[in-house]
Amino acid sequence: MRAIRHARYPVKAVSESRTRMSVNPIPSAASTAPQASGPAATIDAIVVDRLTKTYGDHVAVNALSFSVPPGQVFALLGPNGAGKTTTVEILEGYRAADSGVVRVLGLDPRRDGAALKPRIGVMLQQDGLYPGLQAREVLDLYAHFFDDPEDPGALIERVGLSDAARTRCRQLSGGQKRRLALAVALVGKPTLLFLDEPTTGMDPQARRATWEIIRGVKARGTTVLLTTHFMDEAERLADRVAIIDNGALIALDTPAALTRIESGNAVRFTATPGLDTAALAALPSAANAWEDQPGRYVIETQTPPALLAELTTWLRDQGAELSELRVGHASLEDVFLRLTGKEMRE
Amino acid sequence: MTTPTAAHTPRAAVANPVASRGRSLARAVLAQTRTELKLTLRRGESLLITIIVPVVLLAFFASLRFVPAGAGAPITYLLPGILALAIMSTGMVSLGIATAYERYYGVLKRLGSSPLPRGGLLLAKGLSVLGIEIVQTLLLVALAIFGYGWRPAGSFWAALLVIVLGSAAFAGLGMLMAGALRAEATLAGANGLFLIFLMLGGGILPIDHLPGFLQATASVLPAAALTTALRAAMTPGGAVPLGALALLAGWAVIFLGAAATTFKWE
Predict the structure, then answer these.
(1) pLDDT number for residue B238
(2) Which pLDDT band holds residue A178 (cuts at 50, 70, 90)?
(3) Which of A126, A215, A230, B56 has the most CB atoms in a 10 Å sphere around its CB?
């Protein structure tokens, strides 16, 4: 459940200085095998350097920089309208950047689209399936666009659609369409896979199955750029997570490192809004206290058991409601809330 | 994935990149063309407008022995006009509406990040239009010969030239609507235009039978240009009026050019 499983990836020095330095558009020396050649010798699969995109007065992406080494699963995490899809669609070649530089597998997605497209797999937010074609027919069609495609029959089984292979797409459920769109993204054996909100509309079982597929893809050395607004998805799948809000990068690190910043010995609780945080901080066992969001409080302490006794007594004396109480490690959700002051999902 | 080195040096890894890319493109376009044709055959409304409507129109008016003053045998007059309507139904109505809905469903956008280039998609759509037109022409000509005693006349090559130009013009018009309008607006617009071209295009009712104020307008429409040129090519002597041919070519350039510049893929 916790992010410890991702700790095998060393925590990179946090983003800014690193990404600025790693802009290197030489394509030919790239390798997808970081284990073999070591991080220093590899060219990043994706480089985004001070990317900016505006629509009229609205700044969709604001001086965004990050890079993704080959073989990593990288998650762009942010609320709706944060600029995730705009960023991904610039990397896929759908839109031009207003300023800044992007390199995908060492190539410029706008200029070198013809060379890039055979090597990427794309899953858009809109599935883009022909309503009048059967699931298998869609996959067969896309298989013909690649020189060395996956076997469509095996792939359709891998995404759990064997029983629906002969169903027309307009009759598939939302989750089935999503899985077919994933299969279409995988059919060309991509070096780099873009997944824009891959599990939206799926039931919990299908989400877990999809996570397994993505892990399998990663195990073969494929680089994955994933956007999501599901915290658990980013936490379970991603080697590194970029949290973006209003088009700007606000944090970039491994899920473990991101949550470590927030953890330590903290007590989090939800109670009546507007409690006196100075009084909370003055509790004998409290080191510090603040109200994250109206009604959501965090108290730092060295001795959680003692603090809990003092806190519950204090709340009782105040006549305050207490609806949630938690000790210990933060989740990405807490990190996000702390960094943006926003709930992830409305 | 399994060959990371090759995957990162595509140009070096292929012995003859031009031939290989050509084969890849041909395979992709062929698969896309098959898909376009398959989808057309599955859409009942497409079959209705491209096959059933032209056949019924030809049979109905030829059986009525409807002969405009000054024209020869009814079938000699009607067949080119119905063939022109068939071209409009395929390029403008069927292709236009299908493409508009593909845009609406995000199919065109998704294809945009596949290795099938835009030009390959358009080529596949053009080939599928020609495929449908071959079926239409065979059906209508067979009906004319065996049902109404039509005998081929005029110049085959002139007729072919007119058909290709007319297909380009009306496919261009269909794509212009599909790429600029909402899917529902394309649906209504393509059917509305088909009705207007049926009335004012000279396919069934001669243009010179129209009231004076309509004649001038009708005679510069692309439908009249196609009908006039095709009818001329299919009469004994087979001289194509260069004016109608130039008008048709002009419309083709305008529609294809406007479609190319305004087409929105998403």
Answers:
(1) 64
(2) very high
(3) A230
Structure confidence at residue A32 (pLDDT): 38
**Does pLDDT of B250 surpass 60?**
yes
Q: Return the closest-CA partner of residue A6 out of A242, A210, A214, A236.
A: A236
Contact A31 B28 (CB under 8 A): no
Q: Which residue has the higher pLDDT, A232 or A144?
A: A144
Chain B residue with minimum CA distance to A125 = B106
Q: Distance between CA atoms of B149 and B142, rounded to whole angstroms?
A: 10
Residue to mutate among A94, A107, A130, A140, with most B CBs inside 10 A, is A130
* A65-80: pLDDT as tens digits: 999 999 999 999 988 8
- Beta carbons of B173 and B222 less than 8 angstroms apart: yes
CB–CB contact A115 B10 (8 Å): yes
**Domain ranges for chain B:** 17-262
Taking CA–CA distances from B20, the nearest residue in chain A reads A147
Question: What is the CATH code for A3-260?
Answer: 3.40.50.300
Q: Compute CA B76 distance to the chain's CA centroid, rounded to the nearest angstrom.
A: 22
Enter the ipTM: 0.88
Q: Tell me whether strands A192-196 and A120-123 are parallel, antiparallel or unpaired.
A: parallel
Q: Does A9 touch chain B (CB under 8 A)?
A: no
> Tokens standing for A47?
């480089």
| B110 vs A: CB within 8 A | yes
For residue A145 the two structure tokens come to: 């666009």
pLDDT at position A156: 96
Instruction: Select from A33, A128, A132 the Cβ nearest to the Cβ of B43.
Output: A132
CATH of A264-328, one of 3.10.110, 3.30.70, 3.40.1710, 1.10.1760: 3.30.70
CA-based angle B235:B240:B241, to the nearest 5? Answer: 115
Out of A17-31, B43-57, B95-109, B220-234, pick the least confident. Answer: A17-31
Supply A138's token pair. Answer: 């869609």
Q: Average pLDDT, stretch A171-200?
A: 95
* Residue A238 · residue A302 · CB < 8 Å: no
